[in-house]
């Protein structure tokens, strides 16, 4: 092994001893490594971030109201419900599966909430719990059907789409539409709960501090384990950038109503799911099963349990999204969860960068993807274009995202990283 | 984990076998795949199993790996009679099997693959630092040439992937490692790398069971060769005092056979009277040509291993 005269292999971090490793340090190293990753087909969330910026720029040019605080606050509120559903879709996509019934399940949850609050006079909490439990039970059923009989998830959930749409209509009864009591807390939460600015600023600081100290702590653990650590300057720059972005966003939104509680809930759910996916055994198993079921099984992973938990989570997120949507619209009706809910949720996950082929993606794709979809929708509404155009454009963006997914997969293959 | 106590004391001949099979039989319907197999594996010893296609090598591996149990006969592990009904039971005993298709997750990095299914946790969170450090010390002990453990396994070469698969089998601290055709898909240099690795397993005091079609590999690393023929033991040799021809005749079942005739006569134009036998024997006979004539038998093995395993 060739070493520089100043350090012996023993002094060098355990992961940097191979002479073939190109070592670059500090900020420059971080930038170089990032560029190399992108070239190798590991695009991560880069395409969608660029896409989001382009979309915002175009709509801002076409209509100066697009980036107004008022419109952005509306946009965040519109994201929460379908975005929450999309988190579940990310999970099933990571396994290389699909759930086509999330729209119906969200509509069913809305119907349960509506009937529970008005006709059964349940307390709000009970209605919410019943809806979520029904969602979880549906996911459990899917999981059982999938693992016991090996029916493709595509077919199971297509059947579920119809069946639970029927159940939703049945529960809603002949009127087909129920107005939620406006003073119930869930409606208040979804329509008019906003974080006071001081709390939003505090959250921004907490997020940046968490990023910084998380990195510092990881670095010290790595150092203790004899591994290389990133430069402190990079960590600091990352945290400061995040702080600036968050504070600016909060300050801008505060000129209108501020940060909506439902959007915050959605973002928190994304962060929590990201933790579970990247930092726990369960999450590692999800990626393993998505990469190679057989390898996961032979490694002793209880594959069926992974499938079942993911289907349960997906349907539960769908139910939660349905609750948020109906609370925001203060009604549960035949059209709850209908229309483009299903496809928007699936499209958001894919546009956000989660691969349709399984094993690649991140919880953050739900957030980024739904921001793209709602930006398009909101921009076109501002331009007074109706839903026909919106559908076509969203369809085109979805197609683009799938093409990027397939291309980056091919690029990974040609760079030997398939 | 005691990965650090890598170098074991030299094996003494008087030691008990770590794995010992007596009268093991296995049938599939009308086919007697294995009949009365006896086999001993000592710690710090590499035992090669050779035999023609259909001799029962894969069946033997699967019995030890817990894919399917034997019909009769006993298996002793560390002197105790054991049952191996499931793959988990096999692993729990301390038998690590590296199947021919490796079973790695291409989308995960080396560390994740090494610790897949037995991740080290720190509370609920994965202890990535501990796992990465242990990965490095394990790979160093095996002198594995892997530049980074944080790259996806898909970007590694065939030999490196085989190395990862073998290293992974060591995470559970097994006392026996079974390698099914570890060099079948590899080039010359990578084969040498894996053979070095096998020797390092022996230095660590592990019992190694090596299935191979390649007589050159067998003669390079094995201490003993057990020959299977038509599901029965047909010879157990110390590699040091057996000739290539003797092994071949044990495999084919005759001292006077196509292979030995060819060898002694140096005949290049031996009559292809029995096309099937000749082809099969040639695959074993010509170590240098092994890579060329191997695909057929290897494919056969690869397929039956996979169909078995997917259950
Ligand atoms: N699952 C099975 N079902 C039926 N027959 C099998 C099965 N597995 C192996 N056999 C038979 O057992 C015999 C030994 O096969 P195998 O162990 O694969 O041989 P080898 O690996 O030495 O080529 C063959 O005749 C094969 O056809
Ligand atoms: Mg075989």
What key phrases describe this protein's structure?
heterodimer, A: 418 residues, mainly alpha, ABC transporter involved in vitamin B12 uptake, BtuC, two-stranded antiparallel sheet, 16 helices, disordered N terminus, B: 311 residues, alpha/beta, Rossmann fold, 2 domains, four-stranded antiparallel beta sheet, 12 helices, 12 strands, disordered C terminus, binds adenosine-5'-diphosphate, binds magnesium ion
CATH topology grouping of the largest domain in chain A:
ABC transporter involved in vitamin B12 uptake, BtuC
Strand order of the largest sheet of chain A: 1-2
Give the structural class of chain B: alpha/beta
Discrete helix count of chain A = 16
Taking pLDDT < 50 over at least 5 consecutive residues as the criterion, the unreliable ranges of chain A are 1-10
- Overall pLDDT confidence of chain B: 79
List the helices and strands of chain A in order. HHHHHHEHHHHHHHEHHH
The CATH class designation of the largest domain in chain B is Alpha Beta
Which of globular, elongated, flat, extended, rod-shaped describes the shape of chain B?
A: globular
Q: What structural class do the secondary elements of chain A suggest?
A: mainly alpha
Give a count of the beta strands of chain A, DSSP E runs of length 2 or more: 2
User: Can you identify the CATH class of the largest domain in chain A?
Assistant: Mainly Alpha
Oligomeric form:
heterodimer
User: What number of domains of chain B?
Assistant: 2
Number of E strands of chain B: 12
